[in-house]
Amino acid sequence: MNAGHIEALENAKEYLFNPVNAFLLIKRLTIELNDIELITKDISEHILMSVSDEKPQEFPSLEDLEGAMNALIRLQDVYNLDTSVIANGIGSTGSKMLSDDCFELGQHLQQIGDTHGAAKWYKEAYNRFTLGKTSLRQKVKILEYLASYTYTIGKVEEALAYISELHHLVPDHESTLHQKTFYEDILWYQQEQLFRSNRIPSSKASMSSLTTFKKLCRGEIQRNVSETSHLKCRYVSNLSAFSKIGPFKLEEMHLKPKIVIFHDVLSDTEIELLKRLAKPILERATIANQQTGKAERSKDRVSKSSWFPDEYHSTIRTITKRVADMTGLSMDTAEELQVVNYGLGGQYDPHFDFFHWGKLKEVNRIATVLFYMSDVSIGGATVFPKLGVTLEARKGTAAFWYNLHSSGELDYSTLHGACPVLIGEKWVANKWIRERGQEFRRKCDPKDLE
């Protein structure tokens, strides 16, 4: 444990940007900490208290450990990572996982009903039996599960190999000899073909938009020249005096619906101030219930956020005025600025920013401005599955798009999501603009109804 902490302290921020390191650190401070006994007499009260049953609140909880495991599972799913890639640390900055680390992930997946995922991690744990400590209880559970799983998908020879190893490990293990004989009989009579069909249903729902979302996140979908050749970069100004003097740098990403990137619209000083204001009051991000309007937690959105009205700080007011200058829209009915941090495996599944029904639809979100407050080493892009558009997170830029047609009808092509952060962290700020007050600023375009 001490060796791991020494490595972490050399560059704590860089160390924790790797999701494997973060998982291992949380595991050390939850499960493994309970196994440590301090017998040294000359030790401070602070250290003694930190390993007692009454741990300070700063220590991670089992809920934090579950969140870290879910983050790794999410990254593996979206980026199609092999278990060995994750177990080897996802690049040079990550620590290698030991057998018992892989076991914890396999056990977690088994508990949440992901049979295939559990088998992959139990297999990885099996391959790493020689790396680090693995308890007899863990070995027995791994071999039992792999034997049962491989038999069920028709790989009887593999099942026999696992059960034979278990029998050798624990000769008096109940039912092992019976299972071993059973598998041998199947092979003897050459009936293994009866068991070759995969009888385990996939725990993942097959949804085309979600599949496209993951492919876009992995960079497997790229637009061709015919789709991008008509897009332009230019300086733009509107009716505001500010934009006449200092026009904005605009990059077109999609024309219909309109999606653009404004470059260099948030300074490093402003970004650091927003982070400093947000950090003490960050809370788990929520989504709005379409019927009631109440905020609710959701597994689809994994991030922390805080909200700031214009009155909170002069910089918030400046940013709101800048959004008005950029978009030409009124901020009178706009929502407060939301600052969001996507940490370990943070993501937001494909969703719409507009409200489909209920009370919130009465004054809907006409447009979204999304400020990127950090560069992300790997991952963290904003993608539009129905359009095949990917917006990379670039510090100081802002994405802008309309969520509604000019007629006020909902634009379902604006489905978008935030890809999981694979390496690093992601900070953004959202400004959602409501449709009331925009009647003479964004007039109805007959072509938009075609």
TrEMBL record:
One of its GO terms (molecular function) is iron ion binding. Its EC number is 1.14.11.2. It comes from the Eukaryota. It is found in: Endoplasmic reticulum lumen. Gene3D superfamilies: 6.10.140.1460, q2cbj1_9rhob like domain, Tetratricopeptide repeat domain. InterPro entries: Oxoglu/Fe-dep_dioxygenase_dom, P4H_N, P4HA-like, Pro_4_hyd_alph, Pro_4_hyd_alph_FE2OG_OXY, TPR-like_helical_dom_sf, TPR_P4H. Keywords: Dioxygenase, Endoplasmic reticulum, Glycoprotein, Iron, Metal-binding, Oxidoreductase, Vitamin C. Its cofactor is L-ascorbate. GO terms for cellular component: endoplasmic reticulum lumen. PROSITE patterns: FE2OG_OXY (PS51471). Belongs to the P4HA family. Catalyzes the post-translational formation of 4-hydroxyproline in -Xaa-Pro-Gly- sequences in collagens and other proteins. This is procollagen-proline 4-dioxygenase. The gene is 5566949.
